[in-house]
Amino acid sequence: MSTDGQMSNNNGHVGVRAIVVDDDADVREIFIELLQMNDIQVIASGINGKEAVELYKIHHPDFVFLDYLMPEYDGLYAIEKIREFDPHGKIILVSGSHFERNALGETVKAIIKKPIEMGDVIKAINTIILPNANLK
Prior knowledge:
Helix 2 runs parallel beside helix 3 (75-85). The chain has helices spanning 25-37, 49-59, 75-85, 101-104, 118-129; strands at 2-3, 16-21, 40-46, 63-67, 91-95, 110-113. The protein has one domain (2-87, 94-129): Rossmann fold, CATH 3.40.50.2300.
């Protein structure tokens, strides 16, 4: 588990605070770099669902980017426990597995498939922050 107080100086999503949780160190570090390059402040990172819950309780982030398949405590564990702590928490599931939105209901705000495309991440964040922006 690590924390990082670095903030990007570019315009965009400045002020958006996130936690990234993935058991694959390479995926986690690359994803953190991509988020920071897009003005998203990554305030902490973890390697399993248990750490995700602990970090959420400590940092109260705007978003949690959460892998589904992790050893010991998986993403579903984290979703359940974060929801118990904060029913309005903004959880974005990041997974190589196929999920139907309906299967997870409202427990997650978005699902992003691996390999991660930054455009999908930004679209998910914007949709959550500005839910009426896509309505015309």
